[in-house]
Structures are given as structure tokens and as C-alpha cells.
Amino acid sequence: MGIVEPKILRGFRDLLPTDMIALEKIISVIKDVCESYGFIPTSTPAIEYKNILLAYGEETSKEVYFFEEPDGNMVGLRYDLTVPLSRVIAQYKNLPKPFKRYQVSTVWRYDKPNPGRFREFIQFDIDAVGTSSISADSEIILAIYDCLERLGPSFIIRLNNRKILNSLIVFAGIEPNMARSVFRVIDKLEKQGIEVVKQELGPGRVDISGDKIKGLGLNEVQIKKIEEFLSLPKNTCSEAIDSLKELFKSVKGAEEGIDEIKEIHDHLDCLSIPDGKIIIDFSIARGLDYYTGPVFEVVLTDAKEYGSVVGGGRFDELIGYFTGENTPATGASVGIDRLLEALKKLKLVKTKPSTADVIITIMVKDKLGEYQKIAKKIRDAGIKTELYVGEKTSIKEQLKYADKQDIPVAVIVGEDEFTRNEASIKDLRVIKKQKIEIGEREAYLKERIGQKKVPMGNLVEEIKLMLKK
RNA sequence: GCCGGUGUAGCUCAAUGGCUAGAGCACUUGACUGUGGAUCAAGGGGUUAUGGGUUCAAGUCCCGUCGCCGGUACCA
Q: How far apart are CA A287 and CA A270, in angstroms?
């Protein structure tokens, strides 16, 4: 008989318990924060009609998984959570506005896989729809700020405004249809440096591997003006705002974007958020075409190689493709997979193979019912408790299993304990924590390291005490 | 997509074109039938990613494919 070779698609991956436990933990922290801000959960299908997925234009299509249903409908896997959100807003017209929702779901893109970047990945989106108020943008940024504070990594939130970049196009005298390309180039500033940016704005350059990168062909005056913009003093947010105001004083309509970013800054200032954690960076544009106002992204300062782990901004024109009317919206998207990889590397998330805190070992096979009673008692007290169900029933095997699963406490009840109405509880962490100097195996066994006999009536209390250590 | 590197046991890696492809860790078993550590002993594990070619002889050299890593491009 042929054996089927076990393999998975390129860019896809399995999440084994250790990763999955860490992932769930991260998600639950973010959910808690969202709900503490009054964002409410939504869910939409993984599959949408093709024309829905293509609502913003055909150019998106090459990275989307499309397929035909047996009855001929053309459908596809969602590639983000914003398109389904727009559909939902258009479809359920009586949703309360502002509609503040969060959604954590899998999305699919046929991209080139990278470390921390997969073809199937999880997005955590937070959005506020139906309000132009900048306070919505501030709330989302604050929620993201709180999430990161609770998760623990050091980070920087970079803020900008698409309107400011649009003013730059006017300021530098660039054709409006070049705007998008210019934004794409200046977005590279942080990673590549000013010289590369200037080359790409102008004649182009040749990269390390010998590839030619075409330049945008801007003239020297235009490049000079962009450089002036990018090198504005911005040690503090107020300094950045003031210097930009000065630079753009003759640009018509430039106040709007500057005022918006100032408003966000004022909100954050009231909460005494340290100036270095949320900064203004005029180079960030975000890859997406659809942003219309404030934009921001987050990098982890000790794990920069994962790129931005959160990105977001205002997209006032997007939902209109479905509603036919102007529907302002702003949001953020957390790259959960990148965050997981980064937090693992920074050792800020527990990587454990099991969620159980207690294992009940089986010593007397025909008293299974008794063991189940013990397990129930501990579970009823809110402690995660596993009853050993393996076939190898020697105590040695059971403890080895518990050790491998990193379960901290074992309950051992044999004939002795049953007759005395007692239980032995054993702290399995003790051996790992300190090297115990016992040479002889016999002495080691006698020592019963980390073990304690307690009356059955006190079992739950004693376990709680042991777990607290 | 393009450029470069790389692929040997579960993991980390050895092996001048030449004898039966090795080691450490991990794993299994026993010393030890109510105790996970340490120690000792034994054991299992490989189509050298894959398909072709050169050669008396290929893990080793050449070509294709696939995977992985790095860079670059793209990213609604």
C-alpha cells in the first residue's frame, strides 16, 4: 500500500500547540483591550464573490485565490478584512454609527513567503466606520498603544497624514499622477536612507545584486524640495508640526493635514504618553493607495527585522465603492503572525506545550472513578487539570509525560493515600529550577523532590499554594 | 518575479571524487514494577531533497525541478 507523503502548501503552515497557545494568548490580550475601548466583535465568511473582492480595481487580482464553485459562481478567498467590512456596512444599513468593530480572522494572499509572512495569515483589524472625527483615529492609535504596552515589547508608533504628503506634491511642483510613486519611494527612507531615496526619485540606481531600479525622473529642484521636507527638524512632535507649518505656509490647503496630526498629538499629549513612543515621521506613507488622512505604523525597536507589525489609517473613500455615498472610516490592522514571531524571539510570550496546570496520575487502575472525582474537584476550582489517559501506566511514564508537557503540578494518589484519605502533590518545576545534587538513584528516589502529602480535604487549597510559587 | 547562497538522521553538523555515510543532542529499552533529574549500557533511525548526466567509481562534479535562507521588486 502506498503511503501518502505528508506535506503542506508553500507559504502555509501548521501551528503546533506551543505556537497556538502563544498565539491565542496574544489574541486574547488584544481582544480585551479592544473591548475595553468599546470595539465590538464581527465575523465574515472566508469566501466572497469575485466582484466583491475586486471592488477596488482589477490590479488586486493577481494575489487573490480565485476559484469556481461547482455551479459556476466565481468566488475567492478574502485577502484582507477591509473589503468584507465595506460590504457589511453597505449591506446592513441600520448598523449604529459610529460602528466600532474588531475582527480577527485568517486571510489569504498569493505572495512570496518570507519569515513571518505567509500565504495564509491572521489579521486583527480594528475599525471605526461612519465618523470623520479625528478622535476616532486617536482612539484606535491609543488602543494599539495599550495592546503593545500589555504585550511588552518596546515599540515606536510613527504617525503621518496622507494630506500632508499630498501637499508635498503641490509644494514640490510634481505632477499629481506621480504622487503614488513618490510616496512609495519616500516610504523607503527609514530602511534605505536618504541617498537611495534621492536616487530613486531621480535617475534610478543599481542595487547590490546588480538589478537596475528605475528612477522617477524628477528634476533637481523637485528632489531638493522633497529632501527639505524629509529633513525637517522633528525631535519632538511639536517641533515637527511647527517646522512643517513654516515650510508649507504658502501651500494652499496644507493646514488641514497639519491640523489633523496636531489634533491627534494633542489627544495623546493629554494622556502623557512619552514623546519618543509616538512620533511624527513624514516619510511614512503605507503601501496602500486608499488612505486619505492620518496614517501610522508600528515597529518593534528590538525586532525591526519583522517590519511593521501594525499599520493603519483613515480610508474615507473606500466604503463608498459599496454604499455609493461618502462613508468615512478609519482603522488599524495588526499582523498577528509577525507579532507572534517577534514576541517569541523577544521571549515576551510563554511558549508552553500544554495549558494544563495539574495532572492527575493513575496509580490504582480500578479506581478511575475516584480519580475523576478528584479531577472534577480541582477543575471546579478553576484550575486546568488533565487526567492521565495514556496506556503506559507506570508512575514513571506518567511523570515523564507531565515533564515533557511542562505541567507544573502532579497529583499522586495510590493505595496508601486512599486509605489515609490523603493525596501527594508534587511540584515538577523544582528539579528544573535548581540543580539537585543527589548522586545515587536510590537516594534520589527517596527524596521525593518537590513532593508533599496533604489531607484530601485541603487538596485544592494546597495545589493553589503550590502553583503560586 | 529577478539575483545569490544552500539542501546529509527528529535537531545541529562531519565525511580529499575511493572501503559498510559518521558524531553530539534528542528518542526507545534496561540497570530502576510508587516517582520526571544525573550516571552507565544497549538499541532504533538515511533512497545523502528530487530527476537526469559525467566517471571504473558521485553525498562530493555538471544540468533541470522543488524546498529553504539572504538581497531586491511587488504589496489592494
A: 31
Interatomic distance A400 CA / B14 C1' (Å): 33
Q: What is the Cα A441 distance to its own chain's centre?
A: 48
Residue nearest the C1' of B71 (CA based): A209
CATH fold for domain A17-345: BirA Bifunctional Protein; domain 2 (3.30.930)
- Asked if the model's pLDDT at residue A338 lies above 90, the reply is no
Kindly determine whether the C-beta of residue A453 is less than 7 Å away from any atom of nucleic acid strand B.
no
Minimum-distance nucleotide, CA of A404 to C1':
B36
Which positions 402-421 on chain A have a beta carbon less than 7 angstroms from any atom of strand B?
Answer: 402-404, 412, 414-417
What's the order of all strands across the beta sheet hosting A74-77?
A47-49, A74-77, A66-68
Strand runs labelled E in A30-166: 40-41, 47-49, 66-68, 74-77, 99-108, 120-129, 155-161
Element (H, E) at A341: helix A336-345
Which nucleotide is closest, CA of A435 to its C1'? B37
Q: Where are the domain boundaries for CATH 3.30.930.10 in chain A? A: 17-345
pLDDT in tens, A64-113: 888 889 999 999 999 999 999 999 999 999 999 999 999 999 999 988 88
- Nucleic chain B: which protein residues 341-370 of A have CB below 7 A from it? 363
Q: What percent of chain A has pLDDT over 70?
A: 95
Q: Which nucleotides of B are covered by protein (CB under 7 A)?
A: 1-4, 27, 29, 31-38, 66-76
Cβ neighbours of residue A158 under 8 Å, at least 6 residues apart? A279, A280, A281, A284, A296, A297, A298, A299
Domain A358-468 -> CATH class: alpha beta
Q: Which regions of chain A carry the CATH code 3.40.50.800?
A: 358-468
Q: Note whether ipTM > 0.85 here.
A: no
CA distance A348 to A108: 27
Query: Following DSSP, what letter does each residue of A194-248 receive, concatenated?
Result: HHHHHHHHTTEEE-TTS-EEE-----HHHHHHHHHHHT---SSHHHHHHHHHHHT
Q: Which nucleotide is nearest to A311 (CA to C1')?
A: B75
Closest by CA position to A298, among listed A271, A333, A330, A263: A333
**Dihedral in degrees, nearest 10, Cα atoms A141, A188, A321, A102:** -30
**Among chain A residues 98-117, those with CB within 7 Å of any atom of strand B:** 109, 111-115
